[in-house]
Amino acid sequence: MHFILSISALAAGFSFMVEPDGKGIEIDLSYLSRTPFSNFFLPGLILFLFNGIFPLVILIGLIFRPSWKGINFLNIYKDKHWAWTYSLYSGIILILWITIQSTMTDYFFLQPVCLGLGTGILILTLLPGMQKYLSVS
Fold it and tell me: What is the model's pTM?
């Protein structure tokens, strides 16, 4: 799920940053009329970083469980590997992103898909097997 989120957010975020007027990606700037943004660059950058790069780092952490120094500073669950905690954060970030987007923009068919993806990330992260796999002894 983190892979799907990452790849799609990297592509969309990059497209928004390269085409901040939305013309090349066929999205009208009026889509942003109820938001604080005048173009797609800043939303694209936020999307690229928080729903693109961040889940990719998490995916690496979940698969390989590296003990990188410094990355553990936001891990509030010290009995779990940082990737487990950050996976929770990623699900929450995606749910918040889509909820805020839904209140500030017109309906887009991918919004419920992304909401489901964020919920799925949370559910899978909280499974007992995943918690055991990512426990720190």
Answer: 0.94
